[in-house]
TrEMBL record:
This is SMP-30/Gluconolactonase/LRE-like region domain-containing protein. It comes from Podospora aff. communis PSN243. Pfam families: SGL (PF08450). Keywords: Signal. Residues 143-380 form the SMP-30/Gluconolactonase/LRE-like region domain. InterPro entries: 6-blade_b-propeller_TolB-like, Oryzine_lactonohydrolase, SGL. It comes from the Eukaryota. Gene3D superfamilies: TolB, C-terminal domain. Residues 1-20 form the signal peptide.
């Protein structure tokens, strides 16, 4: 027997379908910290500035009718319904730490599973970093247990310890990191003409001792190693070598093309996996290792060069570990895509000029975890916990998606 109320509801539905209004873009419930960005709303805007006025770096462009503050207030930006599955019903977002000036939350974010800690670094990449061991060769860590305890507060500055674990030219200008058989493998950019770039293994426990794994290509210095990843299928180490050491005045002129290399640490073989980049930067593999994603941040080489890529490229990794089928996967809308990582379903996350952008495996932008500032890199711990670098701010987000790891190397 229908109640009056349900009859009224049916009547309202009928009325609505008769006076059909445009359907809302997202029909599902949107979590409290999320907001929908309707891309159709800015397909046509009143004023479209020419390139010489549009500043592709910072501050980030705000879509029509949004303010920077509104974008930050609800940092999960839903560009596509699929993003709701990624963030789940109750994502959280917290500022964990902040510095007045020193960009200590910069790069090489890596999870140490045994102690549930996240390591990250400051290097001399940003002029604010200045010089000196504490600035250009500084490795820090936080406890994720402490981060979990404050995840439901928006601002937890002062509640989480940021611990300097090592400041030593044993790891000169660290910039990329990956789990390596219970230890941490770091891509170091080098410093000056005499301290060469290298792949260096660090013990994640005191005394944080190190062992150099590779420091040359048949006797030649690399330019300034930037980032690395291990392919889960062949366990080889793939790493990128742009010239940011030269851009930032701490390395001499480049001696080799800017390439992606492959290192088999069991046989010692070093080969080139791909070239044709301006600044090959972040690198990661899809779950299972079939695809490689490499970012090219050539738009920032020596200042802004707008004709250069700020793009993510996808390669198919063949059974023998070589790369083929270079494909332009995404061109990012805000500054450059730096660090890149996949979740366990193969969605691709990139650290960009306004936060972390998330693409599905077809390169469709699903959404952003918006920080409003450069997020050079970020990293998953298990169970959808994400630590995001923001130079002078450190963020912690929890979402439904899970990270993808080379399990036996954790
Ligand atoms: C943006 O704001 C203007 C002025 O308030 C309004 O006329 C317009 O409809 C809004 N556009 C969208 C897409 O909401
Ligand atoms: C872009 O904006 C930033 C910050 O407002 C400024 O420092 C930079 O010089 C601008 N770049 C260009 C090319 O206008
Ligand atoms: C480097 O950092 C450590 C730990 O904070 C501090 O004790 C030391 O004085 C710093 N050294 C320099 C040269 O700033
Ligand atoms: C650190 O030192 C220990 C004890 O000598 C050694 O077993 C370990 O392999 C070293 N780790 C690194 C990364 O050098």
């Amino acid at each position: 027997m229908a109640s009056l109320r349900s009859i009224a509801a049916v009547a309202a539905l009928l009325t609505n379908s008769v006076n059909a209004v445009a359907p809302p873009v997202v029909k599902r419930a949107v979590p409290a910290l999320a907001q929908v960005i309707n891309q159709k709303a800015f397909n046509v805007i009143p004023t479209v500035p020419p390139a010489e006025e549009f500043n592709a770096s910072s501050p980030p462009w705000t879509p029509l009718n949004f303010t920077a503050a509104a974008l930050k207030e609800k940092p999960f930006h839903v560009y596509d319904d699929e993003f709701l599955d990624i963030i789940g019903p109750n994502p959280t977002f917290t500022i964990l730490a902040e510095t007045p000036k020193d960009p200590i939350f910069h790069e090489a974010v890596v999870w140490y599973k045994k102690k549930d800690e996240m390591f990250f670094v400051q290097n001399a990449g940003n002029p604010d970093a200045g010089t000196g061991l504490n600035k250009s060769a500084a490795i820090y860590k936080i406890s994720l247990k402490q981060a979990d305890a404050v995840k439901n507060t928006r601002n937890a500055v002062g509640k989480v310890d940021v611990t300097l674990v090592k400041a030593s030219f044993e790891v000169p200008n660290p910039n990329g990191a990956f789990q390596y058989k219970g230890q941490i493998l770091i891509a170091a950019e080098g410093s000056g003409p005499k301290i060469e770039p290298a792949l260096i293994v660090m013990n994640p426990e005191p005394p944080y001792n190190t062992t150099v794994l590779l420091n040359n290509f048949f006797g030649r210095q690399f330019n300034s190693l930037n980032d690395l990843s291990i392919n889960p299928r062949n366990l080889d180490i793939y790493f990128t070598d742009p010239t940011y050491g030269l851009s930032n005045n701490f390395r001499p002129a480049a001696g080799m093309p800017t390439q992606v290399y492959r290192f088999n640490d069991r046989t010692g073989a070093v080969t080139v996996a791909a070239d044709g980049f301006i600044m090959p930067n972040g690198i990661t593999f899809s779950p299972g290792g079939k695809y490689a994603y490499v970012t090219d941040t050539g738009m920032w080489r020596n200042g802004l060069e707008l004709l250069n890529p700020s793009s993510i490229y996808r390669f198919t990794v063949q059974e023998d570990g070589t790369f083929e089928d270079r494909k332009t996967f995404a061109f990012t809308d805000t500054n450059i895509p730096d660090g890149v990582h996949c979740d366990s379903k193969g969605n691709v996350y990139a650290g960009v000029g306004d936060g972390v952008h998330v693409y599905n495996p077809s390169g469709k932008l699903l959404g952003k975890i918006y920080t409003g500032r450069t997020a050079a890199n970020f990293q998953f711990a298990s169970d959808g916990r994400l630590v995001i670098m923001g130079e002078t701010q450190l963020y912690y987000a929890t979402i439904a998606a899970r990270g993808d790891f080379v399990e036996e190397y954790l």
